[in-house]
Write a structure and sequence with these properties.
The chain is 70% helix and 7% strand. It is mainly alpha-helical and 196 residues long.
Amino acid sequence: MGLSYDRDLTPAGRLIRFWSGFDFIQILGLCLLLGIGLVFIYTTGEQVGTAASREFFDKQIQWIIAGTILFLTASMVDYQRPEIKILSLFFYLFSLVLLILVFVVGVKVYGATRWLNIKPLGLRLQPSEFAKLAVTMLLAAMFSSQLFAVNNLRCFALGVLTVLVPFVLVLKEPDLGSALILLPIFASIVFVAGLK
């Protein structure tokens, strides 16, 4: 979506344009899924009855709040601006660094090393989640650029490489589920970009 910074609009006009750009049916579905998830976590915690189970519920609330703030912040960005497209490349490289760090300082949970502990914040991050967003942003920036034509073999190959590097890193964690999600992301973007 992205917020268009029209200088002719008043602040109230910008706010109205911002809110009118949302797909409220999609947001309602998202809220329903989040609510169902919270109910499952809460009822499981009630059955187990331990302090650790209550901690899962509290952490889920924290992630919902953080995700909502991130969603609203991201929706205010005008993604057509060239500097945002350049930032998507840096975010992609940053996500690759995080994926590599998993093999150096990652935390093993349930037999797989997929997490990074951020001790000052008391958080545990899964870099593969950042990789999904980074791949989406970079592919969208690439194939919306006039320099890239999805039906050009070199451009298409560069798109494949963009997905292949994080795919292999995530697969080695091992996390087959997260790695496989990168494939429909790629397929969707090249389809929208007009792949013949």
